[in-house]
Each structure stands twice: as structure tokens, then as C-alpha cells.
């Protein structure tokens, strides 16, 4: 099938590539000329395991084309995906200007009926606004062409996007037109040949499903972080509690890892956007507001533990920071806990020596010119002469470090672990002051 994808960001590029891999003919359109020209040369704008060879293979096979020519894109695909960004505007609502601009473009150039699919994460009611934009532009042209607007939210995770896209848990399609449903089947059936993963519903429910999924996961995390904070007060170990409750299959083990807060391009933005949507219909979403507030304070947890250990004044201290990306297997630092920590340290007059396996270029781009930041080449180099180690991301290479090297390199043997990678008892035996998240007063270092 002929498919066009507008917006070659994270979601657009991965989805377009997988459509091509499964045999569809895909044209990718983006306004960023540099990005398009790089993609034609096999230079991929994001780090995602397995993506580069798939892009190269399908581009070489002629099934995946890149262009800045919107007209070419509109003429190509019977199905037109909108996968452009929906950045939060000043009050946290999703800004739809890019989505509506693509709708206008499609209506400007279409010569035959088109199925327009919202792939971007958009608030409930966006499909109606996209329809309105398409109709207005067609009316201006004096055209009586027809269109359908479908909601098809994306659920892929950074770091496992290819796998998530190839073997989706579900494909949510919002439409009330049976003919459109048929086309969506034709498009997506190759993804789920052994079992039909497509769940068809009305457009508004599909739009809300995306937010419901991310907000539910964010709620699980904030719930665990609340219990982690309580565990510290009560002298319990949240990691034992986690295993204890996860063994109940109704609760399950996934997304109940406590830590120094969730980040990334989805959870913070989507929770805020759903809060705004609720306010817009005169409903106060008390649970979601609490999820957001807990996460906000959880991101300051490592910094407050540092102050607990060293005293309020951190002037002149140097802190090694391991893990800058918002989670492992990505170079994405959007809403990352590391940023909250580093910015608080700089504000307090401390220096940072940072290391991340993938996000060093991103850190350089964001903070490169600061003289209170050293971007270290290895995790060991980040430790050299620092006063303490803080861990923000659970990259595998941080799981089993040489603790002797850590002790020798740091001026004080103290680890502030935002992802609970180590055993507090073992840390105590090693003579390391260890601050995890929710590991109980009994195992916190200040009683050593
Ligand atoms: C998320 C959703 O999982 C995905 O379905 C959606 O399409 C986009 O948003 P992503 O942002 O890539 O994906 O990352 P995810 O693996 O969900 O992690 C998000 C954040 O939550 C990370 O900062 C991670 O460290 C944190 N997290 C996750 C926890 O703190 N505890 C957990 O138990 C799980």
C-alpha cells in the first residue's frame, strides 16, 4: 500500500521504516532539509538500536523515500500519517499548530480522497479539529473531495521501538467508518499475522486510550515513589516491598521500579496534557495532579540526599554523575532526572563530572560550554577526584562496577543511587555511604 508519513521525528521515522520493511511503499516528508538530506545518506537523527540498518535497507530497496516536497507526499499515499511533534505550550497543553499545519497541507494538495491518520499524541477532540481544518481548506479551494480522519496512537518505547512496532501488543484504531477499518486492516495485518491485534473503537476513545496508558504507567511509578519515601520513614526496604507486591499477578512486576522520577518525551508531557484537558472540561483530576507533583519532587531526591550527607552548602563540591539519558538505551535527555540534578548542583555552586554511554553528544549540545561541567570519556574518568558519585540512569554498565576503584577515586566514599542498583548491606560492608531510594532508615548511610 502507498503510505505517506509527515514528520520524521522519533515516531514517524520508526513507523515509516517498519511499514517499508513489511512491504508498503512509504514516502517520508519533513520540513527540515538537513534532516532529509542526512537520511538519504544513511545518517539517522536519533539513537535507536536496530534502526539504522533497517532505514538503509529499505531506502536502498526504494520502498522508503525521504523528501521535503509536501505535494509529492500528499499525491503518494492513500493513507497520510501525521506524526509531527505536539510540544507542550506554556500551560502544559499539547500545542497542535504542527498537526493542523499538516492537515492544511494535505487538503491543499490532495487530488483524490485521503485517509488522514493522527499518529502524534494529541488531546481528545483533535480529530475533529483536523477534520475542520481539512474541510475549511478544501472549501477554500472549492473542492468537493472527501476524507476520513482516524486516530491511531503510538505506544512504542524508546530503546525497544523496533520490537514494539514489529510486534505490537495492540493497534488502536479510532474510526466509525467500516471502509476505513478495512484499509487499516490491510495496512496493519502484516504486523499481527498470528493474532489480530487491532482494537477498533470510536475516535475519542482511541485518543483517550493513549493518554490513559501513559498516565496509568506514570501513576504506577509515582505510587511506588510515594511508598519509597514512606519506606524511608518507616525503616522498610521498597525493593523488598516491590518484589512482594509484584508477585501478585494482578499487580505484576512491570513499571513498579521506584527511582529518582520518570522522564522522557511522553510521561511528563502526557500527564500534564491530560490534567489540562480535564481542567478544560471543568474536572479536577486529583490523582493525576498528585502523580505529577510526586514526580516533580522525586527528581530532586538525589540532590536532597547530597545535602543530607554533605550539609546544605555544596559550594566547591564535585559530583560524578553516571547516566544522563532519561532511561537506558537512548541518548534522549528530555525531562531527564540528570538535568534536574546537574542544574541544582550548578545553582548550589558545585561542579559535575558526567558520563553516559550514549548521551555525551546530547549533553555537549545542551550544556557543552559550562566550565562547571566535565564530560568524561569513561565512567571511571568521571570519578577522578570527585567527592561523591550520583547515578541517574540504570545503564547495564553501571550494574557491577569495581567498588575499590570508586572508593580510591572519590574523596569521600559516597554513592547516591537514583535507581537502586546496589545492595545497601553490601555497600555498608564495603564502607561506602549509600543513599538509595526508599531503602529504609536502617540501611541508609547516616546511621553508620
Ligand atoms: C513511554 C511508554 O512506555 C510508551 O508506551 C509510550 O509510547 C511512550 O512513553 P518511554 O518514554 O520511551 O515510553 O520510556 P519508558 O520505558 O516507559 O520509561 C519512562 C520513564 O519512566 C523513564 O524515565 C524510566 O526511568 C521511568 N520508569 C519506568 C521508572 O521510574 N520506573 C519504572 O518502573 C519504569
From TrEMBL:
Active-site residues annotated for this sequence: 266 (nucleophile)
Gene Ontology terms describing biological process: polysaccharide biosynthetic process; UDP-glucuronate biosynthetic process
Pfam families documented for this protein: UDPG_MGDP_dh (PF00984), UDPG_MGDP_dh_C (PF03720), UDPG_MGDP_dh_N (PF03721)
GO molecular function, one term: NAD binding
Chain ranges of the UDP-glucose/GDP-mannose dehydrogenase C-terminal domain: 320-424
Binding site for NAD(+): 30, 35, 86, 121, 158, 269, 334
Protein origin, superkingdom: Bacteria
Keyword NAD: yes
Entry EC number(s): 1.1.1.22
NCBIfam families reported for this sequence: NDP-sugDHase
Name this polypeptide is given: UDP-glucose 6-dehydrogenase
Organism (species): Pontibacterium sinense
Taxon lineage: Bacteria, Pseudomonadati, Pseudomonadota, Gammaproteobacteria, Oceanospirillales
